[in-house]
Each structure stands twice: as structure tokens, then as C-alpha cells.
Amino acid sequence: QTQRVEVNALHLLRASDSRFATEQVALVLPASLCSTQIARLAAERLNERQFGRAQGISRFVGFTHTEGCGFGGETMYQLLHRTYRGYLTHPNVAAALVLEHGCEKVPNDVLRHQLTAAGVDPRRFGWASVQLDGGIANALDKIEAWFAAKLAALPVATATTADLGALSLALVTTAPVEKATADALAQLASQVLHRGGTILVAESDHLLAHRTFTTALLGATEPALSKAEGPHATLAYGQPAIAPGLHIVATESEHFDENVTGLAGCGAHAVLAVVSDHARQGHPLVPVLQVAEPAQRSCIPADDIDLFLGDRAADVLGALEHLLVRVVQRERIPVANARGFVDFQLTRGLLGLTT
Asked: What is the pLDDT of residue 72?
């Protein structure tokens, strides 16, 4: 009963656009590899100066990644535009600025055009350029000035009480899981869905091959003769989820970091990952909760992950609920995030290539 009360009384934030947020973050989004380190410097500088604290901003984030220049293929262009839009409009991002270097394949002008075409007003965001603004120092000053003006006019998010239906939760497994774990994950997902929330699962995830999980969420179906006959993707990689519900995210990769990057771009407030063999990296924007099944005790140190699961589905479900509630209410920081062991890596997909 205690856990039911906790699950049904999440203390979250409600932004001015009526969406729920688990925290308010300011984002410096680099358009390419060449601007990633300047984005990191900008975020570190603003965090050191405790910018935005009075407006409820918990921290500034600047991604580091390797895309935007040395790639080819139309699918990669579309993936970048889609995923950048997903992060700019993420429910936890209260203010965002795009930083170009000035010579990438996806410069600011192109991103502005793509946002407009997708129905997103580019005037919501800040825009800076290392080259056009006169170098690193000038770009850093411009970023700080824009956030100072933006945050001064930012409506303060209001604290509110909600339940699991307020969340967008991504589920990830790195190997096939036991029936008790699949059952508990299915029950947790069902609670989120029945309350109006969103569950995100990568198309390549082992959960979609587990009958216990799929039957609970999709109903009894005949075994698929091929992958083409199985569950189909309802979202592209990094595509912002507009409608709540169960979404399968197209992911040509089985790489953990790449899939987590795509799922977070779809709007996940948190990622719940069942890991095997070793702990994985977290994500710089959203918390990644890492749990493991009992058989993994022999190869994963207990302090490398957030929780070892039990053998009974009811116990696993209760433990996952308790951990999830504490993390989304920021009462606990996942181990990987606390240690700064995080990564942001975009997939090249099946047709993307390095040039």
C-alpha cells in the first residue's frame, strides 16, 4: 500500500505548455562535432555561475558528439534534423540554444528551416555561431547573454502532484531476460499506459521477442515468421512522441548508447535498463536507471548499478516502482549519472556513412 501511494503521488513540475517535467534543464545543442567542445564549455561556465537557479533551472547541459560534418546519406540528414528537434522540444528542456561552428552540413539556417517545416517556431530557441560571432570567446558571451534574457522572461514551472501516467519511460534490455523480469516490466509498462503515459521500446530490443512482455501489452498473437511480421515501429529514431501510448522506436542499431540517445530524443523522462555482463554509460540529459538480474551478481559489481532484482515478479515490480519514483523525483541520482559516466552517441543507421 505504501508503494501504491508513492506511485500515485509523484511530485513533478508542470511547464507553461502544460507538459510534465521531472526537472528544468537549459540545453546548449551543438550542431556538429566542431561545436561540441564549445557547447560543453558554455554549459560548464553557466553551471559554475549558477545561472538560472532563481528561475528553477537545475543545470545546463551541452552534448558532445561526432556528427554534423563527416557523414553522407539522406537518411543521416533526416535523422539529425529529427533528433535535434526531439532534444530541443524535450519536456525537461526549459530553454535551448543551438550552437553551430559555421561550416557543418547542418548549419543554423538549415535547422531553422527544418524546425519551421515541422511546425516548431525557431524563435523559441537561441542561435549562436563560433565563426560568425567572432570566435570562441565571443560565442560564449553571446550564449550567456541570450540565456540571461531568456531565463529572465521564463515562466516558473509549477510543482504538481501526478502519477505514473505523467511519465514517458524508455525500457531497454541488453540481453534476453527471465520471465519474472519480463512480467514485472510488462506490469510497470501497463501502469504507465493505463494512466495515459508513454512507453518507448527500441525496435531491436530483446523485450519485443519475449512472449510474456508482448502478450501482456499487445495481446496474444501468432508467432511471427519473420521480423517483418512482428511489431512495427511507430516512431523513427529520435522522433518526438506527440501522442501518448506504447511506441516502438525504429533503431537499426543494437548499440546501447546509440539506442538510449534515440529514445531520449523521443521525449523519455527516464530510461530503465536491465543490463548484463557489465554496467553501461548513462545519458547527459535524462537519468538512466541500471538494474540487473540475480545471476549477474557474479560479473557486475553491486556499486556499478542501481539495483539487483529479485526472482519473483511481484518483488521486482515493487523494487522498480520504488527506484523509479525516487529517481524521477530527484531524490536519488543513478550511479552512472552521479559519476559523470555518460555518453551521447547518434547512430549512423543502415544507410548513413562516414565521408
From this structure: 75
CA distances from 15 to 89, 95, 328 (A): 12, 11, 16
| Helical H segments across the chain, by residue range | 2-7, 33-48, 74-88, 108-117, 136-152, 179-194, 211-218, 256-265, 313-328, 335-338
Q: Around 254, how many Cα atoms within 13 Å sit in the side-chain half-sphere?
A: 7
Give the per-residue pLDDT at 220: 63
What backbone phi and psi angles, to 5 degrees, belong to 45?
-60, -45
Q: State how far the Cα of 275 lies from the Cα of 292, in Å rounded to an integer.
A: 5
Q: How many CB atoms neighbour CB 187 within 10 A?
A: 17
Cβ neighbours for 59, distance < 8 A, ≥ 6 positions apart:
23, 25, 26, 43, 47
Would you state the cell numbers that stand for residue 233, as one nine-digit string?
515501429
Using one digit for the tens of pLDDT, what is the confidence trace for 107-151? 899 999 999 999 999 999 999 999 999 999 999 999 999 999 999
Burial class (CB in 10 A: 0-12, 13-18, 19+), 284: buried
